[in-house]
Write a structure and sequence with these properties.
Blueprint: E1 4-9, H1 13-22, E2 28-34, H2 38-48, E3 52-54, H3 57-61, E4 68-71, H4 78-87, E5 91-94, H5 102-115, E6 119-121, H6 129-139, E7 146-154, H7 170-173, H8 178-194, E8 200-206, E9 211-215, E10 232-236, E11 242-248, E12 254-260, E13 269-276, E14 280-284, E15 290-294, E16 301-304, H9 312-315, H10 328-344, H11 355-374, E17 378-379
Parallel strand pairs: 1-2, 1-4, 2-3, 4-5, 5-6, 7-12
Antiparallel strand pairs: 7-13, 8-11, 8-17, 9-10, 11-12, 13-14, 14-15, 15-16
Helix pairs in contact: 1-10, 4-5, 5-11, 6-8, 8-11
The structure holds nicotinamide-adenine-dinucleotide.
Nicotinamide-adenine-dinucleotide (NAD) binds near residues 15, 35, 36 and 40.
């Protein structure tokens, strides 16, 4: 089988994760990378052994031998790069959030459909084995009718006012920060696992550091711990550090979650709790190989990821035997495997979080912002 030829655009934190996990596929290869300057791209190319590098992503889109493009750049560039890639006929994985606004995302969905390219938004957390297990348990009725969901997604990498990143600048990251950056992962996971759609939200946002100290030189994500006081300048911050959101679904189900990027000691913790009429499920993204199953009339269980113990539809998300942990990087491996399979056979695209999933999350983000501004419930659909 001829390998799919893949280009990665954006070579920061997540661009590296993409390159490494494309290389774990047997049917695809990284043939080129682009960054915003030729120097950055060449440096990354040397470090990771990619021969073809460029400071102009359009060079790669003009190359008919490239089958697929991964977009791993800051949020404001997603729309123009994804649009150009689709127009060039490439299959596209775009990092989340898919665009700066739901209107932009809707245009990408239309364009991708019109051009019949395979499209995916990088909601990689769907591809943990225990997430697939939760979904199967809901689908097969083991959880019963879902009554309540709750959880959080919390981090501490923006804890100090000296912590800085392009995500803090609305013109680059978008009007929402914590909600768009990590809350969207939580909501995507919730809707994916439960099959239920959030119908309305009631949200309160907070910005704990209204002024932050911006480093005078550019930084890669998570690299800000190395600087001294004279390296900074003040910058007002308008996007949220924190969001608390109440959720309403059709029928009896209700829910709530918080997101927080200044939560001391929580490095990157997504917590999801689902309570149904038969049992409860709790999954902690910092301990992804464990799934808690709670029962009123029986013993609670802690399911440790083991393909032989997973539901049949979830087994394919685990490549290693029980007791051998699978983590964050493995979700990209599983995701890309399915993406490339869909590039070869478009009928498999239903297994992916398409651009429609990216649009959905931007609609939710915008509903949360509107709810906070108006001070009440906002319908999502
Ligand atoms: N799915 C996930 O788990 C996950 C994790 C981290 C980041 N992300 C998403 O990935 C994207 C990138 O985040 P990051 O943390 O890697 O950022 P980063 O700042 O570490 O890297 C961004 C890279 O893009 C490059 N770049 C900027 N503008 C460009 C342009 N016009 N053309 C080409 N390259 C350009 C930068 O030079 C840099 O190398 C964001 O949208 C973020 O939300 C997703």
């Amino acid at each position: 089988m001829e390998k799919l030829r893949v280009a990665v655009i954006g070579t920061g934190f997540v661009g590296r994760v993409h390159v490494e996990n494309i290389r774990r596929q047997t049917d695809a290869e990284v043939v080129a990378i682009a960054d915003q300057t030729a120097e950055i791209a060449a440096g990354f190319g040397r470090a990771l052994g990619v021969a073809r590098t460029t400071g102009e992503y359009r060079d790669l889109l003009d190359d008919p031998s490239i089958d697929a493009v991964h977009i791993c750049t800051p949020n404001k560039t997603h729309f123009p790069i994804a649009r150009d890639a689709i127009e060039a006929g490439k299959n596209v994985i775009c990092e989340k959030p898919l665009a700066m606004t739901a209107a932009e995302a809707a245009r990408l969905v239309e364009l991708a459909r019109a051009k019949s390219v395979v499209h995916a938004t990088s909601y990689n957390l769907r591809f943990y084995p225990n997430v697939a297990q939760m979904r199967r348990m809901v689908e097969t009725g083991q959880v019963g009718e879902i009554l309540a969901v709750q959880g959080s997604y919390v981090q501490d990498w923006l804890f100090y006012d000296t912590d800085y990143n392009w995500r803090l600048e609305p013109e680059v990251g978008g009007a929402s920060r914590a909600m768009a950056d990590i809350g969207s992962h939580w909501c995507d996971l919730l809707e994916h696992v439960t099959g239920r759609r959030i119908r309305a939200v009631c949200a309160e946002l907070a910005t704990f550091h209204p002024i932050r100290k911006k480093p005078k030189k550019p930084l890669e994500t998570y690299a800000g711990k190395m600087l001294a006081p004279e390296d900074y300048e003040d910058r007002p911050i308008g996007t949220e550090d924190f969001a608390a959101v109440l959720l309403r679904f059709d029928g009896r189900a209700r829910g709530s979650f918080t997101v927080n990027q200044v939560a001391a000691g929580r490095k990157n913790r997504l917590l999801m709790e689902i309570y149904g009429t038969r049992c409860g499920l709790t999954w902690d993204g910092e301990r992804p190989n464990e799934l808690w199953v709670g029962r009123r009339d029986g013993k609670n269980q802690l399911l440790v990821k083991d393909p032989s113990l997973l539901e049949r539809g979830a087994r394919g998300f685990a490549d290693l035997p029980g007791g051998h942990s699978e983590g964050y990087a493995d979700t990209f491996k599983q995701f890309f495997r399915r993406f490339y399979a869909a590039c070869r056979d478009h009928s498999l695209a239903g297994d992916l979080p398409g651009f429609d999933a990216g649009l959905r999350q931007l609609e939710l983000v915008e509903a949360v912002l509107r709810s906070d501004a108006e001070g009440g419930w906002v319908e999502v659909d």
